[in-house]
Amino acid sequence: MAAAAYKMISIPEAQDVVLSHTRPLGAVTVGLAGALGRVLAEEVRAPDSLPPFPASIKDGYAVVAADGAGEFPVVGESRAGHLDQLPVAPGSVAYITTGAPVPLGADAVIQVEDTEKLPDGEGGQCRVRICKAARAGQDIRPVGSDIMEGDTVLQAGERVGVAEVGILATVGAVSLRVHATPRVAVLSTGDEVVDPATAPLGPGQIRDANRAMLLAAAAKAGAEVADMGVARDTVGHLEGCLAAAIEQRVDVLITSGGVSMGDRDLIKPLLAREGTIHFGRVRMKPGKPLTFATLTLPQQGGRQMLVFGLPGNPVSSFVCFHLVVLPALRKMGGWAAPELRRVAARLAVDIKLDPERPEYHRCTLQWGPPPPGSAPALKAAVAEAAAAQVGAARCAEDPLHAPPAAAHEAAAHGAAADLGAQELWAVSTGNQISSRLLSARSANAVLEIPCAAGVLKAGSLVSALLIDDLGGMPVPAGGVPVTPGF
Ligand SMILES: Nc1nc2c(c(=O)[nH]1)N[C@H]1C(S)=C(S)[C@@H](COP(=O)(O)OP(=O)(O)OC[C@H]3O[C@@H](n4cnc5c(N)ncnc54)[C@H](O)[C@@H]3O)O[C@H]1N2
Ligand code: MOO
Questions:
Q1: How far apart are CA 94 and CA 110, in angstroms?
Q2: Whose CA is nearest to atom 4 of ligand 2?
């Protein structure tokens, strides 16, 4: 089929098609040190309770609550890691440290700050004054108060993060069943494409940006990666590269380049011969010629391999990877909800719309007051809105200090009405041409910009798909906590 003959589908359709052909991989066993980032294939239960014994919350004295305040002999001590056999009888106390088992007989702990050491009594007997009466159970963690024996502490399908590693260690789960990670091969194509180490460049040559970038993206997604090099624009060489990827038994092959309309764009015909192309054109900017195929491999027991033919323009490859390949890798790795996450953000500047394709505009999301370089009218609108909010808060606290009427008016109509003093702002990465990889630099999201004529104004609320975590976003000048009273 000629490339143009592929029906142009929407990006949500393309994502659905890909996920419908993607299956979670089977379970493998890993040790605790290999668990981070993996998805559990079985639930994890606690074999014992935490604390396993009634434990002290404070450094102080284990007491019998009914004894109340007074002077007492210190008959023993219980230190973390050492179980004292001595019971505490009424009329006596035991020294205790944080986390130590509360001795038999004691039913409360008095923190050391509420006691006073007394001179030793007869025979060198330690003595202490308990200055405050205790309530039974005071400053004691009962058995199982954090985790009860038999509790399910993690469910199948949960992703193991840093806290989960700690939880697994807590319950002694040192060997775990998790979903296997996908094996992903990356192949660049194009006679002009040369190794990044090439210098100086020969006539017509460009350095291969896509292979290193896509290997990094797949590795960041937790995949095991295989570098397949660069294929020349010949049917024979491309067939050889495809065969090599199959030989390596990868789950996914990602190619870049050679999917458009040129007479040397050979990827689509190759995939049509070797497997089934599910789509070959998507209504998106960038990434229109994005291609997805599945290959059924009788020589490998009939297993299926997914092939993503990404467009050669580096930004197109970058965007297509995140929108379509990443959710598939996540699903293979066991994610129950593999889609990119969406948040709402305000445009810091006007964005020109594309009348032919919806655009995935790269941006850096950042929280705070309007960022430097944002449209000047926005700053005024935000200041007005903030003044109105402060006024309204004062008014609620104290009706005598009503907000100025002007600020009320500004907040009641116009753009200022729904703006906060601090917002999640979408800062464009500049010229969005699909050859300019600098438009992906520091991008933590892509904005969903509708296909239409004209301009989307600064201050508009837009949806943004997260392609990176927000923990590394720029630190705003003048950003302060927004929790009242914090
Ligand atoms: N007649 C038409 N031409 C084009 C159309 C179209 O609809 N009709 N679509 C355009 C769009 S949109 C895109 S995107 C590109 C995609 O083309 P290909 O996937 O065939 O990619 P190439 O032609 O091989 O390369 C495009 C561009 O990217 C550079 N490139 C390729 N590989 C790499 C790499 N590994 N590292 C860095 N740069 C790479 C290559 O040199 C080209 O400049 O097609 C349009 N054409
Ligand atoms: O869709 Mo292409 O990816 O615009 O450059």
A1: 10
A2: 286
Compute, in angstroms, the gap from residue 121 CA to the centroid of ligand 1. 91
* Residue linked to tokens 């907000």: 403
Residue 319 Cα: closest atom of ligand 2: 3
Per-residue pLDDT of 184-222, as tens digits, reads 999 999 999 999 999 999 999 999 999 999 999 999 999
Contacting residues for 270 by C-beta, under 8 A, at least 6 apart? 235, 238, 239, 242
Atom of ligand 2 nearest to the CA of 315: 3
CATH of domain 343-472: 2.40.340.10
| Token output for 45 | 């239960």
Nearest-CA neighbor of 45 among 164, 132, 173, 165? 173
Where does 3-26+181-332 sit in CATH, by number? 3.40.980.10
Rounded to the nearest angstrom, the distance between the alpha carbon of 288 and the centre of ligand 2 is 5
The token pair that represents 88 in the structure block? 């505490």
Q: How far is residue 278 from each of residues 7, 11, 187, 298, 307, measured CA to CA in Å?
A: 10, 13, 20, 20, 10
> 40: pLDDT confidence band, cut at 50, 70 and 90?
very high
* Region(s) of the chain under CATH 3.40.980.10: 3-26+181-332
Using the atom order of ligand 1, give the atom closest to the CA of residue 192. 41
- For the chain, residues classed under CATH 3.90.105.10 are 38-49+151-179
- For 391, other C-beta atoms within 10 Å of its C-beta total 19
- Which residue's CA is the nearest one to ligand 1's atom 3? 261
Residue among 282, 308, 313 whose CB has most ligand 2 atoms within 8 A, to mutate: 313
Classify domain 38-49+151-179 at the CATH class level. alpha beta
Pocket of ligand 2 from Cβ distances under 6 Å: 285-288, 311, 313, 316, 434
Q: Is the ipTM of this complex over 0.90?
A: yes
pLDDT score recorded for residue 397 = 52
pTM: 0.91
Write out the residue limits of the CATH 2.40.340.10 domain(s) in the chain: 343-472
Q: Does domain 55-141 correspond to CATH entry 3.50.50.60?
A: no
